[in-house]
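so my prof wants the structure for this chain in the tokens format not the other one, which i didnt know existed until like an hour ago. anyway here's the sequence
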Amino acid sequence: MPKLKTRKSAAKRFRLTASGKVRRRKAYRGHLLTRKTRKRKRNLRAPSLVAEVDRPRIRRQLGLR
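here's what i got, hopefully its the right format
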């Protein structure tokens, strides 16, 4: 079976944890930050995990099986 190519857009957005889960950045941190509370922006800083149902698809996009 041929090797899978990495989708570069996915490689920039997702990272794997040591246990094989997929980390992602939280949404709503890109712009219009003046109207969001400090607490909300602080909570958006922490990385989050991709849902389990989406994990196989993301891993495939990263060139993994």
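also thought this was worth mentioning. The two ends are 11 Å apart (CA to CA).
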